[in-house]
Backbone:
């Protein structure tokens, strides 16, 4: 398919091309060749190889993947989160045609988004629920880990975001996100999209993270779920997560707990850094 190194976001297409279904009237003989019983056509390679190759070439040369996405899938605000051919996430507005690599500036009057009540205060979480979430192992581990990385100077916040781009791009290429979904999860994690737009990348990162090793998803009766529902957590508790080794069960996806812990680690480090800078400025010379 001529997919080159660095184009990992297209490997899903190569995987599909490796096991394509046969079209009507096509069959494979004992030599491995393909024969069309209706036309008599004979080819040593799968009849869909050329189609896959052309599609791959189209995706490789497309610098604006929003052209491949039907505009009807956008929410009323028009914004969609996608990724370009270089693997960099970007936002595109189907209403205005605006393309930008930063999170869109929003206000409570944003058309569509504000009307649908997706912009809501992030402090509505009850103290009991908050204490439970802060006690989750994924949260605590991520908070301390990210804080220690930042405090030691191993990485900075910009590098954390950059390192998340590969996974985000790979998933966004196949499953772009409407702004409403990013807003919903961002506020669920405790990010204010108006005051903290630079932290909203953590929200779509939370969507893209796979279930961590050791965790399983179960129905309320304990039956394991192979394909967990992804958006039910905002509305009802229809599934839960369990880690057999840690003997921990929780309603919240552990990868979301991890991202909330990441957010806490970043906030603590930034607050302490700001405090130290103010102390140095106030110190007598």
Residues:
């Amino acid at each position: 398919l001529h997919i080159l190194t660095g184009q990992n976001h297209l490997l899903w297409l190569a995987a599909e091309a490796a096991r394509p279904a046969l079209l009507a009237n096509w069959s494979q003989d004992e030599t491995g060749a393909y024969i069309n019983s209706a036309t008599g056509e004979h080819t040593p390679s799968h009849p869909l190889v050329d189609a896959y190759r052309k599609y791959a070439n189209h995706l490789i040369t497309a610098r604006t993947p929003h052209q491949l996405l039907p505009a009807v899938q956008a929410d009323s605000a028009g914004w969609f989160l996608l990724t370009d051919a270089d693997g960099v996430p970007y936002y595109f507005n189907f209403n205005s045609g605006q393309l930008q690599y930063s999170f869109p500036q929003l206000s409570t009057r944003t058309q569509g988004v504000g009307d649908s009540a997706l912009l809501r205060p992030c402090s509505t979480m009850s103290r009991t629920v908050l204490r439970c979430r802060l006690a989750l192992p994924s949260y605590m581990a991520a908070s301390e880990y990210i804080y220690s990385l930042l405090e030691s100077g191993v990485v900075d916040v910009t590098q954390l975001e950059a390192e998340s781009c590969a996974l985000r791009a790979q998933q966004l290429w196949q499953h772009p996100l409407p702004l409403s979904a990013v807003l919903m999860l961002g506020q669920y994690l405790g990010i204010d999209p108006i005051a903290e737009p630079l932290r909203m990348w953590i929200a779509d990162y939370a969507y893209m993270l796979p279930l961590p090793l050791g965790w399983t998803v179960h129905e309320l009766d304990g039956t394991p779920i192979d394909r967990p529902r992804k958006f039910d957590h905002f509305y009802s508790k229809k599934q839960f997560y369990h880690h057999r080794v840690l003997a921990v069960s929780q309603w919240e996806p552990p990868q979301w707990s991890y991202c909330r812990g990441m957010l806490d680690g970043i906030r603590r480090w930034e607050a302490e850094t700001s405090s130290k800078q103010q102390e140095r400025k106030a110190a007598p010379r």
Q: What stands out?
A: The longest helix spans residues 254-282. The CA atoms of residues 28 and 34 lie 4 Å apart.
